[in-house]
Amino acid sequence: MAPLFPPLRPNFDAALRDVGAKDASLRAAAAERLGDPPGDRVAEARAALHPLLDDRSAAVCAQVMTSLARTKDGAALDRILARFEDGDPTVRQVALIAAAELGDRRALPALVEALSSERPEVRFQAVASIAQLAPDEAAAPLAARIHDPDPEVRAHLADALGALEDPRAAGALKALLDDAVPAVAEGAAIGLARLGDGAGVAQLVRALGDRERCMEAAWALGEVGATEAIEPLATLAASFLKPLAFKAAAGAALVRLGDPRGVPALRAVLTALRSDARSYAVELVGELGEAALAPELARLAKRPRGVDPVVLAEALARLAPESDAAYAGLRTLAMRDDEAGERARELLDEA
Fold first, then answer.
1. CB 151 within 8 A of CB 181
2. What does each C-alpha distance from 72 to 64, 81, 264 come to in angstroms?
3. Which burial class, exposed, middle or buried, applies to 5 when counting CB atoms under 10 A from its CB (0-12, 13-18, 19+)?
4. How far apart are CA 264 and CA 246, in angstroms?
5. What is the model's pTM?
6. What would the pLDDT profile of 115-144 be if each residue is shown by its tens digit?
7. If we measure between CA atoms, which residue out of 64, 74, 80 comes closest to residue 24?
């Protein structure tokens, strides 16, 4: 049971003292504080943390590894690697995360070996850690695991391989398109779209119905110029029941695909009673350079109605060279006495 009143974060000197406390919660709080030492006391922090790597409390041990990673203590690497198959699941996960956070490529062989662990959660975290630590070398070891028996690991592999944006991962991603698990195939299709490859259009169209993937899928369909997806995108953009963010993403994809229904779809989100996706729609309009929607953005400059005014300023600045309305909206924002006003004035000076 967690304490009703957890200890307050100690100051640095108190943390040096509390590493020897009997109470595990005090030791954990001390370890957390020592992960953020004053610049001239890093060596003291590391020296105090090292003995706690063998602490009897899993929570303390996990926090110590996190803090040592934050201080980039390469001397702790071997002991962290030794915890990849620890008996405590939290310690295992944190060890894999800390190995990547250290930024020491000597950890790469051990992380690659962890991809063959009997524990799927170890393999899952090893995927993320390899991609973080060595993105330029990750494609080959990750591609070798595309037949992992655990569907969550395969889905994570698809996402990680796609995020690398490495052409060497294309073959593995195409192989994953045929996976029976939709999350795997859809993740692979999105990854291929990042490489400009439209081999996964069918999977992307299917992903338009997935709440977790819809917005990425719409972007990807626009990215690969999938004109065969225009009607599914138009249906999504016009849907009364779908979230506004989904409709905005579909509208943006339609604009990119040259379909005239895209602009009205974005306009509907910009002028909707609800404001939950308005900033997103404004950002999309700016990215697209869609000057036809500049009047709507200029009106928002007078009354943002839930829009982040800094995002609005950036979008208006992109449209201003082609639109007097956008330029006027940017000047309206420049009259504000806040961060958005300052940013608008900077953008006007750059114009």
1. yes
2. 12, 14, 51
3. exposed
4. 14
5. 0.90
6. 999 999 999 999 999 999 999 999 999 999
7. 64
